Amino acid sequence: MNYKIIAVDLDGTLYSDEKQILPETAAALKKAAAKGAYVIPSTGRPLMGIPENVLELGCIEYAVTCNGAAVYNVKSGKLLSEEPMDWEKSAEILRGLKGFDISVDAFIDGKAYKEKAQISIIDSLALSEYMKNYLRNTRIFVDDLAEFVYTEKISVHKITLNFSVDGKGGFTDRAKTAEYLSTVSGITVVSGGMNNLEITKNGVNKGKALLKTGELLGIPRSEIIAFGDSGNDIDMINAAGTGVAMANSTSEILATADFVTRSNNDNGIAYALSELMNI
Q1: pLDDT (tens digit, 9 = 90+) per residue, 161-215?
Q2: What homologous superfamily is domain 5-83+204-277 in, according to CATH?
Q3: What's phi and psi for 59, nearest 5 deg?
Q4: Where are the beta strands (DSSP E) in 99-210?
């Protein structure tokens, strides 16, 4: 199949566990791009959170960000499509989350915001050192996130919650947070991996945004292939003409995919492109 869009999740998919893009995978994506395919990162991260080693592939022009809440032309920074939560709903959620011992980030206009008082919680999160440093180095710190959003009347693309290990085999306040979010109307809550929770406007997902991107580029669903591994990828896997699960995927992704490839540590993307596109 001559796919025209190759959509790739980052963590657990394009990235190895060491947050590297393996040489064979990079070469396969570059070869596909040279044959006319768009390689599109499809991620829960905001625009500014797309790492340099992804951009350095040299074939990235568009990106689906914030689980589909915003689509950008990466080269120009132009916003092509968005479905944000309105500022009142966002402020309501951020205020409601203040009662929990959790890490809260809000993604706004391609950037990521966090409260200054939460810098100290980063050390205790159930994340790799790479991800902890990513949080420290990519956030814009404000005094009060809820009041910042409410006062400035800012629409929020996504809110991401990370949790600390509770020492009992679980995560501090995760269940209570999930219970609270279940009472909030008008939102979608998924996990993007690492036991986090990610909040967007109801109906927002990577699949919907990916099809919108295809529409903007004049590319039909049948010519889209998507790679993913975790909960926030399932709509993308289902929406694409061909949905590919990494071998390291959650059981839900493995069950719904059209094709299961090798793991993220074994050049799974390159293997699938070889099998399905003869690359």
Answers
A1: 999 999 898 999 999 999 999 999 999 999 988 899 999 999 999 999 999 999 9
A2: HAD superfamily/HAD-like (3.40.50.1000)
A3: -130, 20
A4: 103-108, 111-115, 139-142, 158-162, 187-190, 197-201
